[in-house]
Amino acid sequence: MSEQTPDDVPGIDDWQRLLDGKVAVVTGGGDGIGGAV
Length: 37
Prior knowledge:
Blueprint lengths: L11 H17 L4 H4 L1
C-alpha cells in the first residue's frame, strides 16, 4: 500500500457528489446512522 499524498485526495467537488447520493439514506433513517447524526 503506497503512502497517501495530498495529490491522491480527490477535490472537494468529488466529495460533495459522493455525499449527494448518501444524504437521503443517512437523513431518511430515523434510527441507526440517521439517528446518530
